[in-house]
């Protein structure tokens, strides 16, 4: 007959030591799930081929993240690249940048990828086209062999210096100013000498004329001063 005497269970219980160790590790494994609590900034704009940006994620189990994807409507968006800059259990810093040929888009999201999870980050990325950069001006200093800065094609010979070429003359304009006539004319034009103007000043007659114009000498003026007779005449004139 077989001996039916009860025997003590193996060490570690019915499951043995390996099974007991698995049960003890199960709660720790379940608690290692990745969760996102917040992200900063929550919205950012990237220029195609431009400077990148950083997104700081707060949560738990973030040290389990192996890679990061940029997605649009649930699909991976190849125009934005994301990489882990610094990783910890409660904080993760992500660097994002857009490729030079990326097309404009809105609503791009970041997704944290772990061995068992895909966790979306509450941060929206807008992708804009690159701002075109104007090329160097023709004939500028950045062009080899150029000495001066110019825009467009050359217009020909340099303009002549003032005095070498005169613009077409303008018709003189005369304006009455009291007893005088003022002539406003083009400074480039040669004007004939103006006519002499006589102005009466008491017993004398003043003549206003062009100093360069030839004129007849004035007549002597005789003044009666008491018992004397004073004659006023131009220098060199005959009396």
Rg? 51 Å
Q: Strand order of the main beta sheet, please?
A: 2-9-8-4-5
Characterize the overall form: rod-shaped
* Tally of alpha and pi helices: 1
Strand count: 15
| Low-pLDDT residue intervals, each spanning 5 or more residues | 139-143, 146-153
| Share in helix | under 10%
* N/C terminus separation: 185 Å
Strand-residue proportion = 35-45%
Listing every helix as H and every strand as E from the N terminus to the C terminus, the arrangement reads: HEEEEEEEEEEEEEEE
**Class computed from helices, strands and strand pairing:** mainly beta
Instruction: Let me know the largest β-sheet.
Output: 5 strands, mixed
Mean pLDDT: 74
List the helices and strands and how they pair.
Blueprint: H1 16-30, E1 35-40, E2 43-47, E3 53-60, E4 67-72, E5 75-76, E6 80-87, E7 91-98, E8 105-113, E9 118-128, E10 173-177, E11 180-184, E12 197-201, E13 204-208, E14 221-225, E15 228-232
Parallel strand pairs: 2-9
Antiparallel strand pairs: 1-3, 3-7, 4-5, 4-8, 6-7, 8-9, 10-11, 12-13, 14-15
Short structural summary:
With 239 residues, the chain is mostly beta strands. The protein has one helix at residues 16-30, and strands at 35-40, 43-47, 53-60, 67-72, 75-76, 80-87, 91-98, 105-113, 118-128, 173-177, 180-184, 197-201, 204-208, 221-225, 228-232. The termini are far apart.
What would you say this structure looks like, in words?
- The chain is mainly beta.
- It has one helix and 15 strands.
- It has one helix spanning 16-30, and strands at residues 35-40, 43-47, 53-60, 67-72, 75-76, 80-87, 91-98, 105-113, 118-128, 173-177, 180-184, 197-201, 204-208, 221-225, 228-232.
- Strands 2-9-8-4-5 form a five-stranded mixed beta sheet, with no helix packed on it.
- Strand 4 and strand 5 form a beta hairpin.
- The longest helix has 15 residues, at 16-30.
- It is rod-shaped.
- The N and C termini lie far apart (185 Å).
- Mean pLDDT is 74; it is low at 139-143 and 146-153.
């Amino acid at each position: 007959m077989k001996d039916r005497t009860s025997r003590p269970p193996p060490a570690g219980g019915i499951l043995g030591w390996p099974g007991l160790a698995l049960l003890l590790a199960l709660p720790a494994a379940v608690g290692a799930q990745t969760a996102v609590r917040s992200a900063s900034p929550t919205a950012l704009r990237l220029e195609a081929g431009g400077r990148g940006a950083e997104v700081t994620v707060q949560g738990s189990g973030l040290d389990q993240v192996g890679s990061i994807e940029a997605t649009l409507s649930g699909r991976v968006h190849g125009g934005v690249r994301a990489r882990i800059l610094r990783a910890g259990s409660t904080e993760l810093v992500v660097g994002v940048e857009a490729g030079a040929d990326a097309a404009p888009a809105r609503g791009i999201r970041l997704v944290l990828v772990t061995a068992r999870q895909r966790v979306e980050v509450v941060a929206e990325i807008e992708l804009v086209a690159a701002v075109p950069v104007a090329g160097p001006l023709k004939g500028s200093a950045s062009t080899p062999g150029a000495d001066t800065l110019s825009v467009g094609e050359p217009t020909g010979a340099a303009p002549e210096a003032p005095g070498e070429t005169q613009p077409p003359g303008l018709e003189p304009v005369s304006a009455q100013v009291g007893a005088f006539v003022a002539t406003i004319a083009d400074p480039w034009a040669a004007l004939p000498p103006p006519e002499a103007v006589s102005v009466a000043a008491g017993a004398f007659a003043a003549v206003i004329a062009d100093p360069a114009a030839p004129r007849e000498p004035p007549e002597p003026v005789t003044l009666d001063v008491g018992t004397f007779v004073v004659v006023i005449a131009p220098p060199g004139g005959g009396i």
